[in-house]
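Reopening this one. Same input as before:
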Amino acid sequence: IPNSFIKVIDNLVFYPNNSNKIIYIDRKIYLNIFNQNQYLLKKFEKPIQNNDIKESSFISSFLSAFTVLESEFIKIFLAKFFINLENYMYILVLIGNQKIIENILFKEIICEIYGHEYCLTITEDVLRNQPLETILKHKLFFYINFIPKEKELLEKLEIIIEAVFLKKFITSERKKINIT
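Same output, byte for byte:
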């Protein structure tokens, strides 16, 4: 068999908004390492035509019941993210009952829909013991349940938040690392 018939993967990519495992771009072959779960695959089976949110859905009813202000904004934010799987230039900040926000909204709804491996709860242990690249690489959602008082950890958290917007961060060696 001639070498020209053997296809070689040029690089690994993390493209959440593409359901294909093999992606061809400019005559190169990429392996998409993002794994679409059963919930995310549904959007490819029957494309969503508009962003109308059904009040009858469990998630919509939950958000209406447990948010005091602007539950529509949260619904639209999550719906648009579900459709496009791309970060926007803003962060959704939820303040309130930790059991409801962390245990139900984040762990049982967001993590289930988007995949636990692509969501991370940022705790004191994570900030102290995981390098930035590990924290940031291939993550779609973060839940911050620890705001440090120590300068070093606070700076690390600031880098994480900034990296979410820029999709890049700078290491201590001054190298830019792409996190997508």
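So the earlier flakiness isn't reproducible anymore. For the record, Helices lie at 38-45, 58-66, 71-84, 98-114, 124-129, 132-136, 151-166.
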